[in-house]
């Protein structure tokens, strides 16, 4: 594993360069010893005990009655998309859902992202979120946390971004790049002249070019120092692209793949190309994360079958098991299935895994639900403030562990 670090930290540390060089072999050995193959472990709260690693992905939520008197930002943050603003929209437990902290098994509470420290640590840094609306949800959370302590921002759209901000006093840029499948897709219909898909009876669908990164983020890879990718299970689930009416048809090198692939196979291939592309295009010291799937919590039917999420407490461990066990074939199980594809694609790569799935599986209480402003309940996005603040805590802890590794 190459020692990753933020270029900003590199600039600040130039004077310490020579002692650092001498330390490097030792650090590499330590890093090797503490890192399992798949994901970088976050170092425990105690910076002085890097040998005590902590798996932040596993654990439980513990009540913290004081948490909502120390709001990290409130409903007035302009970056909160209207439907996710549970407090402003009058969701009954809009504030109560903040009274929980994530406690990784056998460790102290996951430390909260300290916005001052985050801004300071990531001076002259560009951080990009690349993915669907769940990554926008996470982006909005980070923007709101940082704006709370540093309001001087310039709003702009760097490198194909949908939205972005530079925190002027720190020259830290955050942006969100909208993409659903990560790769390019668009409507496809049969040509009157025929072709391999036409001869198999395909009439219309969605063309997915597995080897062409979506143009909304293709330039982001060389612009950002830190990237956080996701692609939602939603997009790869059969319900989104009807396999009969509008199947996904996969293309590679501009040609249809024959025999046609099923969505999970297409996903594997798209992920493979994305990993290769990012590895080539990323800046030399760039850090790349892949965020795991964000679970949905529809009960009593799927989103279009009147399913809802009315709970006001996180699920118990037992309930989480029932909701998400792959064997149970329930409404929301696809997260774990898509995660398996993700892990396979990332296995041999230097992507770090930001594993938010399990911690989020508990939070059936924290979706906009009936206050999302849609015809159906929103049991997919998250209230802001809400659980995606904790995803950012995890991100900050991971980035901080990297820096400590080089200290
Ligand atoms: C995420 O963490 C949970 C809890 O430890 C684990 O069960 C799951 O396999 C992890 N998922 C991935 C994709 O690493
Ligand atoms: C701001 O940060 C970028 C790198 O992210 C750097 O290229 C640029 O020179 C910085 N600007 C200033 C004024 O330091
Ligand atoms: C499957 O899920 C349903 C609720 O969604 C639950 O009632 C049932 O007990 C679960 N079964 C198992 C085997 O977990
Ligand atoms: C899983 O559930 C869906 C409907 O929700 C059904 O169409 C499918 O046949 C089920 N699969 C299995 C293996 O039970």
From TrEMBL:
Q: Which GO terms describe its cellular component?
A: Golgi membrane
What membrane topology term does the record carry? Answer: Single-pass type II membrane protein
Q: Where is the Trichome birefringence-like N-terminal domain?
A: 53-108
Which stretches make up the Trichome birefringence-like C-terminal domain?
110-397
Q: Which Pfam family, giving just one, matches this sequence?
A: PMR5N
Q: What is its main location?
A: Golgi
The name this protein goes by in its record? Trichome birefringence-like N-terminal domain-containing protein
Q: Where are the transmembrane segments?
A: none
Belongs to which family? Belongs to the PC-esterase family. TBL subfamily.
Q: Where does it live in the cell?
A: Golgi apparatus membrane
Q: Which UniProt keywords apply?
A: Disulfide bond, Glycoprotein, Golgi apparatus, Membrane, Signal-anchor, Transferase, Transmembrane, Transmembrane helix
The answer to whether the entry has keyword Ubl conjugation is no
Question: What domain of life does the UniProt record list for this protein's source?
Answer: Eukaryota
Q: Which GO terms describe its molecular function?
A: xylan O-acetyltransferase activity
Which species does this protein come from? Answer: Lolium multiflorum
